[in-house]
Write a structure and sequence with these properties.
The chain is mostly helical. The protein contains eight helices and no strands.
Length: about 130
Amino acid sequence: MPRRSKSDELLDFEIHFYEKLLSAYPDFVDVLIPLGHAYTRRGLYEKGLGIDLRLTRLREHEPLTWYNLACSYSRLNRIDESLEALRRAFELGYRDVNYLQKDPDLLNLRQSTKYRQFLSSFSPPPVTSKPTP
């Protein structure tokens, strides 16, 4: 059996620690957020999705929560759900399009034609210059 790296051991410790805290405080947002990130780093995308769904119920008006949900759905290749979560994030004010274009969590979504259509629907209208009198 191959020896586990120190970073793998630390990540497992982190996950165990947050899960223990969560068992005592199930709606503790400051535990849910890092636990969701840790699950993703470990490749436990279904578990990360569960955390993100909980967070959208607890913070339904927070754009970053919906953005993270879009990332979880994209990782699981659930493109339509990812797009809907991203749409909700934009409706709530998320606008970091530069990051969106390079976020590895959204790779599956970015390969969809629906994504390109969505993005163009949120692009600002082109600036037209007015003729000078």
